Amino acid sequence: MPTGEPFRVTAIIAAYNEADVIAQVVGDFIHQGVQVYLIDHGSTDGTAESVSHFLGRGLLRVERFPEESGFPVEDAGRFAWESILHRKELLARELESEWFIHSDADEFRESPWPGRSLHDAIRAVDHLGFNAVDFALLNFRPTHDDFRAGDDVRAAFPYYEPGAEFEKLQIKAWKNTGAPVDLVSEGGHDVQFPDRRVFPIRFLLRHYPIRSQAHGERKILRDRRPRVIPFERTHYEWHVQYDHYHPGQSLLHDPATLIKFDPEAARLELLLRHRELESLQATAHQLTLDLQSAQSALAEIQSSPLLRLSEAARNALRKLK
């Protein structure tokens, strides 16, 4: 890319009642050279107001959803994930940006290379001919109940567990190729578009979904469960991650059951266990299973009574000759 030509990376974030962390998330993106477009889904806790000082300084706009988005008015009172994903798809066609990131309001994204910003890392990926980025999901858990709005959430909670197998795919950054993208089919976890080429090394995704007992109870019991659209559960099988939770259950974790975050170790893991290596390992595992299956089938054939009878007939014929 010629020197001086703009290379814009835009994070599109949807938020509902995330005032305790949204300014940290938006500020971190901007600090890393990534501009932000925020969709405020009817927050009642001052989410939009807490980032207003970033407007014109990396924050492109705070859009009220659905009022300013052209979506059904009933989406205002429900967790309309399909509509939000469709809105993000549309914005990725409308906004002027070389790359986009589909992000949530409680996520921090980082380069796999120490000292390189998210913007510069994505630019390097683009230069190498790739047009999509996968992320390694680390779910940071609350180990105490002392977090308060304004605290640095990354300093407060240094312990995490890797994302579950069902959420392993996190292909949420892509190049603006001019073609429409599909976020809905995979629930926002795996963006789809023609001729996709995913960079083999994952980037970091640090996720802080629960920040205290009170926050978790409010999020699960008030902000999520009553507002989920039944069709999205039955048709897409979305919104199941908190099904195991029951009122009164502790949301705090024992640090001994988690991993303490070490930036150097985490990035080394990204480099050693990249997507292409995992693909080769999966292929080798499948070949091993296929070989074992073939050996089992051969042993079964060799032990068949019909085969023994056939061998006995051949021996009898040889004696007659």
Structure description:
With 321 residues, the chain is of the alpha/beta class. It has two domains: 9-261, Spore Coat Polysaccharide Biosynthesis Protein SpsA, Chain A, CATH 3.90.550; 280-320. 36% of the residues lie in helices and 16% in strands. The chain contains ten helices and eleven strands. It has helices spanning 22-31, 47-50, 81-94, 118-127, 153-156, 213-224, 230-236, 263-272, 275-302, 305-320, and strands at residues 9-15, 35-40, 59-64, 99-104, 107-110, 132-133, 135-140, 159-162, 173-175, 203-207, 259-260. The strands form two sheets. A six-stranded mixed β-sheet has the order 3-2-1-4-9-6, with helices on both faces. Strands 5-10-7-8-11 form a five-stranded mixed β-sheet. Strand 1, helix 1 and strand 2 form a beta-alpha-beta unit. The longest helix is centred in the last third of the chain and has 28 residues, at 275-302. The radius of gyration is 25 Å and the shape is elongated. The N and C termini lie far apart (83 Å). The model has no long low-confidence stretch (mean pLDDT 91).
Defining key terms:
six-stranded mixed sheet; 36% helix; Spore Coat Polysaccharide Biosynthesis Protein SpsA, Chain A; five-stranded mixed sheet; 10 helices; 321 residues; 2 domains; alpha/beta
Any low-confidence stretches, pLDDT <50, length ≥5? none
Quaternary class: single chain
Which fold name is given in CATH as the topology of the largest domain? Spore Coat Polysaccharide Biosynthesis Protein SpsA, Chain A
Give a short account of the largest sheet: 6 strands, mixed
CATH architecture of the largest domain: Alpha-Beta Complex
CATH first level of the largest domain: which class?
Alpha Beta
**Structural class given helices, strands, pairing?**
alpha/beta
- Tell me the β content: 15-25%
Q: Please indicate the count of domains.
A: 2
Task: Round the Cα radius of gyration to an integer and report it.
Answer: 25 Å
The average pLDDT score comes to: 91
> Helical region count?
10
Q: Give the strand order, joined by hyphens, for the main sheet.
A: 3-2-1-4-9-6
Shape descriptor: elongated
Number of strands: 11
* Ends apart, CA distance between termini: 83 Å
The helix content, as a percent range, equals 25-40%
What's the SSE pattern?
Answer: EHEHEHEEHEEHEEEHHEHHH
